[in-house]
Specification:
Layout lengths: L1 H7 L5 H30 L5 E11 L2 E10 L5 E8 L2 E2 L6 E2 L5 E3 L4 E9 L9 E8 L4 E7 L2
Antiparallel strand pairs: 1-2, 2-7, 3-4, 3-6, 3-8, 5-7, 8-9
Length: 147
């Protein structure tokens, strides 16, 4: 009698079994892809600073160079040094409106004003390379001509 009960039962067809197996495989593959993408995103963050504008203006005792910088990367950045013509600003008797380290979160802006006295290697008509150095080891140069 027990053989008779088993003989009357039928399983699913091979086509339906194949469709179910393929569907489960696709769902698992998509889940793994999203998971790996999330992990990869954590390790592929980068810093990128963009100097959006730079200009120089004359003052009574020298010049002011105004630098507008924005963090356009996917990681926070910190400006740890400002160089003028390849030399740190403090060795050239220049003053900054804000002193390094200058933290910049993702998407944030900063304005740096560099006051240069009218002496030393600077004069009207001279080009000055302003280079922002980040804690991540990147450098972002821009050149401006003193009026």
């Amino acid at each position: 009698m027990s053989r008779r009960l088993c003989a009357n039962k039928r399983g699913i067809s091979p086509v339906v079994a194949t469709v179910i197996l393929v569907a489960v495989t696709i769902v698992v593959a998509v889940a793994v892809a999203y998971w790996m993408g999330g992990i990869a995103g954590l390790y592929t963050r980068y810093e990128k600073l963009e100097i959006t504008s730079i200009y120089a203006g004359a003052t009574t005792d020298g010049w002011n160079i105004t630098v507008h910088v924005k963090n356009t990367g996917s990681a926070d950045a910190t400006i740890d040094n400002v160089l003028l013509n390849g030399k740190p600003y403090n060795t050239l008797s220049a003053n900054l409106s804000i002193s390094p380290p200058i933290p910049l979160t993702v998407g944030s802006n900063a304005t740096i004003v560099i006051s240069i006295p009218n002496r030393g290697p600077f004069a009207s008509g001279v080009s000055v390379e302003v280079r922002l150095h980040s804690a991540g080891g990147q450098e972002y140069p821009k050149t401006v001509t003193l009026p």
